[in-house]
Design brief:
Radius of gyration: 20 Å
Distance between the termini: 37 Å
Strand content: 5-15%
Order of helices and strands: HEEEHEHEHEHHEHEHEHHEHH
CATH superfamily of the largest domain: Nitrogenase molybdenum iron protein domain
Shape: elongated
GO biological process, one term: cellular response to iron ion
CATH topology of the largest domain: Rossmann fold
Keywords: Signal
InterPro entries: ABC_Transporter_SBP (IPR050902), ABC_transptr_periplasmic_BD (IPR002491), Vit_B12_bind_prot (IPR054828)
Number of domains: 2
Family: Belongs to the bacterial solute-binding protein 8 family.
Number of helices: 12
Pfam families: Peripla_BP_2
């Protein structure tokens, strides 16, 4: 994805995938592009109101997260074009199609037999429907169950139900192991998750926030959006953050905005924050931190590994 503004990020994680970033880091689930369908796959198939008579062979993905899901379940060879922010896996057929300003004519020129997207911008779903192009919408997840469901549904639609089941089960097993190995603490460690240098953040009520909760951490931003008026994405002041004195600062703006432990330390008043003093400012991969596909396991592992270094 391209780097979103904090509000777009909020819309893209909750409507989205927040920040569209750059290169991807090592992942536990290396996507495979094998095109052979599951033995159990039969058509027609129906997911919600969408029915496909045959297995799609010209899929266009306008969602970086959906692209990752499609390749993870082995449907990569059926994907003929992805949007300009789908940068993982590296061999995804990137095009100049935009997910933020989708153009029905440009999409139709790819002759797709299935379009997968997360947001219905510019009434693109209606436009593609008028062109008789099947559309599957996979909106930003709010829970891990949403992620598992979308992977399962994409597996059904693409003829890879068994592979999709394998991916979701592996994710569940990996997450369960990470959580089971957490150290027992008398008091929770606190954190601030930075979406951008403007100090927008995500509360525990968001998808990203739920991962930190799984890791046993306490979010310093929760009180700043207790009424939910900011949709779980409030903007904090430097004073509020410094006063809260988080044990950790996680940066989801390392690629987009070149933020690092050094830039955080240089901010007025931040040198005395516990996270800074104890070298507990953690840089995240913007892309992985803004998507809700199989690589959420990698994100959770990064969080758990960082916090595990603090004695219980």
């Amino acid at each position: 994805m391209s780097r979103r503004t904090p509000r777009l990020f909020a819309a893209t994680l909750a409507v989205a995938a927040l920040a569209l970033g750059a290169c991807a880091e090592k992942t536990s689930d290396t996507p495979t592009a094998t095109g052979s369908a599951s033995a159990a796959a039969t058509f027609p198939v129906t997911v919600g109101s969408l029915t496909l008579a045959e297995r799609p062979e010209k899929i266009v993905s306008l969602s970086p997260t959906a692209t990752e899901m499609l390749f993870a379940i082995g449907a990569g060879t059926q994907v003929t074009a992805v949007d300009d922010n789908s940068n993982f896996p590296a061999d995804a057929p990137k095009s100049d199609l935009s997910a933020f300003q989708p153009n029905a004519e440009a999409i139709a020129a790819k002759s797709p037999d299935l379009v997968v997207l997360s947001d219905d911008r510019n009434k693109i779903v209606e436009q593609l429907g008028a062109l008789k192009i099947p559309v599957f919408r996979a909106p930003a997840a709010t829970t891990l169950d949403d992620t598992y469901r979308q992977i399962t549904e994409l597996g059904t639609l693409t003829g890879h139900p068994d592979e999709a089941a394998d991916v979701t089960q592996r994710m569940k097993d990996d997450i369960a192991k990470l959580v089971a190995d957490l150290p027992k603490r008398s008091a929770k460690l606190t954190y601030f998750h930075e979406l951008g240098p403007e100090l927008y953040t995500a509360t525990s009520k968001t998808f990203i926030g739920s991962l930190y909760t799984l890791a046993g951490l306490e979010n310093i931003a929760d009180a700043s959006d207790a009424d939910g008026k900011n949709g779980g994405y409030p903007q904090l002041s430097q004073e509020v953050i410094v006063k809260a004195n988080p044990d950790f600062v996680f940066l989801a703006d390392t690629k987009c905005c070149q933020q690092s432990a050094d830039t955080v330390k240089a901010r007025a008043g931040w040198a005395g924050v516990t996270a800074v003093k104890n070298n507990q400012v953690v840089g995240l991969d913007d892309d992985i931190a803004s998507r809700w596909g199989p690589r959420v396991v990698d994100l959770l592992r990064t969080i758990v590994d960082a916090t595990a270094k603090v004695p219980a």
